Write the structure tokens for this entry.
Amino acid sequence: MSNLAKYLMPFLFAASAISLAHAENLAIVGGDVYTAHDGAVYEGGVVVITDDKIAAVGGADTPVPDGYRVIDATGKWVTPGMMNAYTLIGLSEVSLEPSTLNHSISETFYSAGFDVSYGLNPDTPIIPITRIEGVTRAVVVPGFGVPFDQNPNKSVFAGQAAVIHLGGGYDLVVKGQAAVVSYPANAKVGGTRTAVLDYLKGALHEATPPKGKKKKKSNGGGRFAKAPEDKAALARVVTGEVPLYINENKASNILQLLALRDEFPDIRLIILGAAEGWIVADELAAANVPVVIAPTSNLPGSGFDSLGATLYNAGRLEAAGVTVAIVNGGFSSAHNARLLNQDAGNAVAHGMSWNGAFEAITINPAKIFGIDEDFGSLEAGKDADVVVWDGDPLEVMSSPDHVFIMGKEVPLVSRQTRLRDRYMDLDDNEMPFAYKK
């Protein structure tokens, strides 16, 4: 075997391992099972996986079918896989190299209709880097809007998000066109907040299907929704078919968004950011509007939209009854998506309950984006996304021992671990091929 082949073989094997994996029948026994379902915990419990589904979850007396592979998880924690509700996984590789970015559009005729799922790179090394930390699902989003000097639409909409699994292969999309994303703070339409809100309302009005009449096919756009693709996407928002995933931090601006229901009663909102959400937590809870927050955001940043930011935001929102999903601090949405559980742990350190924080990275994002029938908790009939941890998953030093995505055990190998192993114990007589002299 050539030196080149010798040193490439581990890389090629690791890259292909997930495609060779297959769902199997197995049982995880003896671990403390945290289901994320009504707070149920089974000490020394059992999770039975048949093919790609969870077949049973229960206490130590839960029967294990004959012939099933058994994983002894005694002294460990067993949980559902985590879900990051705001990422650029598969859409961003090197942030300063435009050729590796597929999350935003420019110099084009449409915005809200832009579907990021078509630009996904299933071979990105970020997927294995993220999944070996226990994240098995993610929401991939368009970037922070379209530069106005490059887009004739001057739109407040960035495009449509999608939900993906991190199991590898070329069929990553679990739910396409899962939400229309908007970044009002980045849209300096008219130079004022009032103009931005008028634009938002105007686009939604133009996309509202006529009542009591047969819907006509639109061949063009309007003043605000300037392309038929935009009108089609926004029509699904107006009718409540998909949510509007909108970035807003200031308490008064959040209240203005809640008031959109006066004009669009079927609209479903998801507030991204919500740095001052705790100030209007009761209103958010009463409106049943969920929030996706970075719990470590406690500085105003630029502008005056988040002067009330606090580390206690997550706990206060939870106490008010708001459905909360947690994402990374600073919305580090691609390479640091794997740090999701650390941010949840920080939320616990500042007043959120452990169960609340755990559900904010499992079942809550699944509910918010409409995949909770299949994912987000350990329940019979759901996809077998299961993680076995060596300790409390919200503790910074804990890590997974096993990760299953839809019943397939994924190798705990990434580009980072391969580089670590390659250079950890170098022998001068066995230098890597690139360093042979």
Summary: Residues 1-20, 145-152 have pLDDT under 50 and may be disordered.
